[in-house]
Amino acid sequence: MWRCIGVHVLAGALTLPAVGVADTLLPKTRTMTVSAQIVAGCGLKGGGQDFGTLDFGVLPAMTAGDVSAVAQGGSLQFECTPGSTLRLSVGGGLKPDAANQRRNLQGPGGALVAYQLYADASRTQVLGIGQTVTLSVSGVVNLPIYGSLTLPGGALPAGVYTDTAQVTVTY
């Protein structure tokens, strides 16, 4: 008797799901929404991934006064939609002064020479440490970085003076 009851329960369990599937009408048609939002912006163009080197050249130790340069060997190039805005900021480098107000090149014996960076060739848009400069752009634009340093004239030991600064561009 146990065998008969077991067979009936098993057979009933197998037929129940088939009844539920037969009640579903196929196919069902539904809709979906497709959209895109196009916004003004910029994209990095070409293979350049850095600003190159800002080299003030070879200068006699007795030189006094201002020396200017523009970064060579690299210039980030962006392509932007009309009305776009780029924001450019530069960190303090490896040896900023204690107040984090000026960048310094470091040379022999830890000697320091202060320098300044600019976003424009006329050197009116100062790139202060961590300060953001906003540039309105349209089409293909290059972002060179310009610099100047003031030599004290004979007060520095001869040698190579260097620094490395992090540049951030947002758009």
UniProtKB/TrEMBL annotation:
InterPro entries listed in its UniProt record: Spore_coat_component, Spore_coat_U/FanG
Domain of life the protein comes from: Bacteria
A Pfam family annotated for this UniProt entry: SCPU
Domain Spore coat protein U/FanG residues, every copy: 29-168
Extent of the signal sequence: 1-22
Keywords recorded for this protein, A-Z: Signal
Official protein name in the record: Secreted pili protein involved in motility and biofilm formation
Keyword Lyase assigned: no
Record flagged with keyword ATP-binding: no
